[in-house]
Amino acid sequence: MSEFTLSKDADGVATITWDVPGKTMNVMSFDGLGQLETCIDQALADDEIKGVVITSGKEGSFAGGMDLNLLAVMKEEAGDEPARGLFEGTMKMHALLRKIELAGMDLKTKKGGKPIATALPGTAAGIGMELPLSTHRIFAAENPKAKYGLPEIMVGIFPGAGGTTRMVRKVGAIAAAPLLLEGKMLDVKKAKGAGYVDEIAADPVAAAKDWVLNASGADLVKPWDAKGYKMPGGAPYHPAGFMNFVGASAMVHGKTQGAFPAAKALLSAVYEGALVDFDTALKIEARWFTSVLMNPSSGAMIRSLFINKEALEKGAVRPKDIPDQRVQKLGVLGAGMMGAGIALVSAQAGMEVVLIDRDQEAADKGKAYTESYLDKGMKRGKVTAEKKEAMLSRITATPDLDALKGCDLIIEAVFEDPAVKAEMTKKVEAVIPEDCIFASNTSTLPITGLAEASSRPEQFIGIHFFSPVEKMFLVEIIKGKETGPRAVAKALDYVRQIKKTPIVVNDARFFYANRCIIPYVNEGARMITEGVSPVLIDNAARQLGFPVGPIQLTDETSIDLGAKIARATKAAMGNEYPESPADDMIFWMEDLGRLGRKSNAGFFDYDEKGKRTGYWKGMQDKYPLLEDQPDLIEVQERLMFAQVLEAVRALEEGVLEDIREGDVGAVLAWGFAPWSGGPLSWLDIIGTPYAAERCDQLTAAYGERFACPDLLREMAAKGQTFYGRFNPDEASAA
Hints:
The protein is of the alpha/beta class. 50% of the residues lie in helices and 12% in strands. The protein contains 31 helices and 19 strands. The chain has an 8-stranded mixed sheet, sandwiched between helices. A 6-stranded mixed sheet has the order 1-2-3-5-7-9, sandwiched between helices.
């Protein structure tokens, strides 16, 4: 079936319509590229056609990017030379977009071409933006929901179909750098200011056709093809341009700490491309794009942050044959920070919400959280008064449990105490319908134990949010021993409604995310007790791509929370609890009243406004710094292995049922080295044989917490990878 079709009107304007069958949004495929080129060739060869408008057959959108199978086809066609296949395939895309850009004009005189414009009814991303950038004029609809940009950097690559080179030449390196390096999607007005869009029109197709019929020869020549072109802001060896490129380099390394291969490759493509003519710059872009695609980091990021994330959001692990379980009326127990956040995102998704707390004042305070959030949105022009009123009307704040009648899902977010939760469970189950699903938002307490207070444990499940709820993308769903499939389906459908990414895990202490996060922060604390500089520890983590180091993370989440978790875990595990000097340090800090950011004193000192002023030097009075600090790589591997071994154990013990959830969950929950694709992908990158060997070395040096899990040992002996052994696609096919 055709993805691109060509038609022409009586005025001699051809319209090329992009409409991929069976897709809600267009994506570029291998067949689509061929069809687009055929349409372009026909339009340029037809003397009756005066110009071309490229648009979309999808209402409200133009295109969402590239079908990643296109990259696989490029590799496969090259056989034993995948890099050659990727480079040549990329150059074919460049040749097609260059054909559109030159539009049949004489290459020497730049005359005789046909005007080609793009009419964007809405969102254009990735190659869906690179294609318009190759046309002579871009018209966008007045669509407030539409977003425009080049977000490739977010999944470990960069714009490689000419978007990098064209944007740098269109707006200059310093203006293009944040657009390319941050991958932000912009609304139509900001997109026009950024250079993605040339004109905004009520009817972009009509406006584009009118422009095509009135375009002059000069309108067809891109600035970089015109004689005497000079790059905005200056080229690398221009006095002003030199400083711009120095600034861009500093910005890249400051934000990425050198951990993300795509960012460095992008900067190289921009710098080297700016030194040569446009067509050579495209070839340089293609070479760096190929280099990134051949880096295992790129494949891992694409797999985790695009393919697997999307699969989980679409219900890859949802129980089969369970009818739609979308939530109509939600009850939230507890109007504190978590409960208030849950109420906010649920009302935002259109649900009726009953927010319960001990008295009216506490319940109203929880609802006020949504009002404050909406007021901030109104100041930024993102929220209307009507939208605010509608959202607030969906939230009923009350201490009256009878208001929960008619709810089809309850989320309990009360104090983290089993007795308190049990009492609420019994009280609420006496009021809610028999078929209502009951969920506990707990971060540490086993769901199976909490379900003992329920008269219907098959309808009891864990839904673990991360704080702040409205900003965090992940929700961890926990199945107790008796949790039934309808409860799982209900939780997954709810998470989809609030537009977050779910992972489903089996019940165990700390579930999955906290099970891996806690060893990360503990290893950082352990190193301080050994005399390792906290500066080295946190910077080592940031250079691995973590958003914050383990010491700073502990301060942000509060030191007394860590102490509370340690005590509760020790009480539950008894003699099996592994004693740790990290606990001793946390208890010491707690006794001093240094509880972290919330008390303006923790591992860091803070000024009156709560801004960090430096690491607290008092740590070194109790734990003097080593004269010879350890090697950076040694510190980094301790931090990495502390986490990834817990991920392996979670898989080994059946807490994780799907490795996709282990990787996606780690990146979204606590920012695990995004360039790696997640802990299990990282082990595949370094290889299981090396990982097992390194476990033995770390165990000998630092203790049994680094002991190699039996699963990893077995896989190392067989030379297996995690995505080779636990391929979710093969498992689902079986």
